[in-house]
């Protein structure tokens, strides 16, 4: 009955009314086919779990993107989060002075992470986060039939980063099967830290789609990991018992302080990686430009030969099956390539520039893409899945349990690809389900900051 209902939806809502959305549906099928062909153990795949996960993600997508109350609820939540995080600038202005915006990334963007991390820590102390997480774990476990630990880890990743989520499963890592380790890594690669969502919003990415991407990626990650590295064992750790997440902190102020201090490690990691990777990217572009000029691939006859240009061609077929219109594929492919090979911060910076270009340059091509393409790009690059992240993830897991080093190294590359594919599946699901982007005026932290500084500057 469920399959008949979905097929009816596809025929009536997609094929007859919006045939261009059918490409996203084909993309989901191709992703499943690719992961099945490259699976570690195809015979062990439990197809009931796979189809249940797809159905769960489809239901989430319908609720969030197609119902008026669901869409408005997430849009309202995104607006409130944006308003709440805007108070970060008051703290940054107090510490760094009125002109902190001159070094906006270091003093403005990184301050968002401190404030958000403190907020999450307070919510954990109050026990509110545990309530949300336990409800989502129950839905995932009963909807997909997955184990308690992998479901818990997937649910925690919706709200916090992979590092914080890893601490939840750390005591039982030595008991996990190899497939469960792969699931933990895939969960981490397919989502982003809640504290960094504010950063992406500040760049101009639509907040409501960033939040919904976190929810949709949880079942997507479990579907992909069950395809590429299925578990033959039925005696997984605490299969039906949901582990309790303890409350931490000696009070609200202590929890806020602990959360803010914990953000320092995240900030350090982000800053040093962005400096190193942007510098490396510029060096690669300089080499490519030099080489391109000498073989006749350069202005004015050709576009400058850069790493981003190469990515725009290499990833063009992939972003096309996500549902991106052909005219926008080069730009979105550029973002996806930068996200995979460099990191998502630079990719979202690029997306933010494109969004602002669309608002300012409605009649120009190559500097703007459609609202639908912006939406799909937001989902496709919303994941901690790049080659630098792979090294960090392997090092973190190995330090927790050195005896599982060989298994962790074995799972690493496959889990990275799985995380990337989970992000793509989420983008396909959003592209297939979403009718049109009911975009209102794009309010970003950058515009807020500009207005604030103009008012406060004598």
What do you see in this structure?
- The protein is an all-alpha fold and 458 residues long.
- It has a domain at 27-247 and 402-456.
- It is 73% helix and 0% strand.
- The chain is built from 21 helices and no strands.
- Helix 11 (194-203) packs parallel to helix 17 (344-360).
- It starts with a helix and ends with a helix.
- Residues 209-431 form the Concentrative nucleoside transporter C-terminal domain.
- Belongs to the concentrative nucleoside transporter (CNT) (TC 2.A.41) family.
- InterPro entries: C_nuclsd_transpt (IPR008276), CNT_C_dom (IPR011657), CNT_N_dom (IPR002668), Gate_dom (IPR011642).
- One of its GO terms (cellular component) is plasma membrane.
Measured between the Cα atoms of the first and last residue, the distance is 66 Å
Number of separate helices: 21
Output the helix-strand order.
HHHHHHHHHHHHHHHHHHHHH
Q: How large is the share of residues in beta strands?
A: under 5%
The percent range for helix content is over 70%
Domain Concentrative nucleoside transporter C-terminal: 209-431
Keywords: Cell membrane, Membrane, Transmembrane, Transmembrane helix
Domain Concentrative nucleoside transporter N-terminal: 26-98
Domain Nucleoside transporter/FeoB GTPase Gate: 107-205
Describe the protein's topology.
Elements: H1 2-16, H2 22-37, H3 47-66, H4 68-85, H5 88-96, H6 104-126, H7 128-144, H8 148-159, H9 162-169, H10 178-189, H11 194-203, H12 207-228, H13 252-294, H14 307-314, H15 316-321, H16 329-341, H17 344-360, H18 371-380, H19 387-400, H20 405-433, H21 445-456
Helix pairs in contact: 2-20, 3-4, 3-12, 3-20, 4-12, 5-6, 6-11, 6-13, 7-8, 8-9, 8-10, 8-12, 9-10, 10-12, 10-20, 11-17, 12-20, 14-16, 16-17, 16-18, 17-18, 18-20, 19-20
């Amino acid at each position: 009955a469920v399959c008949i209902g979905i097929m009816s939806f596809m025929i009536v809502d997609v094929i007859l009314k919006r045939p261009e959305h059918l490409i996203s549906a084909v993309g989901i099928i191709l992703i499943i086919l690719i992961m099945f062909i490259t699976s570690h153990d195809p015979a062990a795949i439990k197809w009931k779990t796979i189809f249940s996960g797809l159905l769960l993600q489809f239901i989430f997508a319908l609720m969030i993107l197609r119902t008026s109350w669901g869409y408005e609820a997430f849009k309202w939540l995104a607006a409130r989060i944006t308003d709440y995080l805007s108070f970060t600038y008051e703290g940054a202005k107090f510490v760094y002075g009125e002109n902190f915006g001159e070094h906006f990334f270091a003093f403005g963007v990184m301050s968002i992470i401190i404030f958000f991390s403190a907020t999450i820590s307070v919510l954990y102390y109050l026990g509110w986060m545990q309530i949300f997480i336990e409800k989502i774990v129950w839905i995932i476990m009963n909807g997909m039939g997955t184990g308690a630990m992998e479901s818990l880890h997937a649910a925690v990743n919706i709200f916090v980063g992979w590092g914080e989520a890893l601490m939840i499963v750390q005591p039982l890592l030595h008991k996990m099967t190899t497939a469960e380790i792969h699931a933990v890594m895939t969960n981490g690669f397919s989502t982003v830290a809640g504290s960094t969502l504010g950063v992406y919003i500040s760049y101009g990415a639509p907040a409501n789609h960033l939040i919904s991407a976190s929810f949709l990626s949880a079942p997507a990650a479990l579907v992909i990991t069950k395809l590429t590295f299925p578990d033959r064992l039925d005696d997984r750790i605490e299969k039906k018992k949901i582990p309790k997440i303890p409350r931490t902190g000696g009070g609200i102020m202590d929890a806020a302080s602990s959360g803010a201090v914990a953000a320092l490690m995240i900030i350090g990691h982000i800053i040093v990686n962005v400096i190193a990777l942007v510098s490396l990217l510029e060096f690669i572009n300089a080499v490519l430009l030099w080489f391109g000029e000498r073989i006749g691939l350069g202005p004015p006859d050709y576009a400058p030969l850069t790493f981003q240009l190469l990515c725009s061609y290499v990833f063009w077929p992939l972003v096309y099956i996500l549902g991106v219109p052909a005219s926008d594929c080069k730009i979105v492919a550029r973002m996806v390539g930068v996200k995979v090979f460099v990191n998502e911060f630079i990719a979202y910076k690029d997306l933010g520039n494109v969004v602002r270009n669309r608002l300012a340059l409605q009649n120009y091509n190559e500097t703007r893409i459609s609202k639908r393409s912006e939406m799909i790009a937001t989902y496709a690059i919303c994941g901690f899945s790049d080659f630098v992240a792979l090294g960090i993830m392997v090092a973190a897991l190995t330090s927790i349990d050195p005896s599982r080093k060989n298994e962790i190294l074995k799972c690493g590359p496959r889990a990275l690809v799985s995380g990337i594919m989970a992000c793509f599946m989420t983008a396909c699901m959003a592209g297939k389900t979403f009718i049109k982007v009911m975009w209102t005026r794009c309010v970003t932290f950058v515009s807020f900051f500009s207005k604030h500084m103009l008012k406060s500057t004598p």
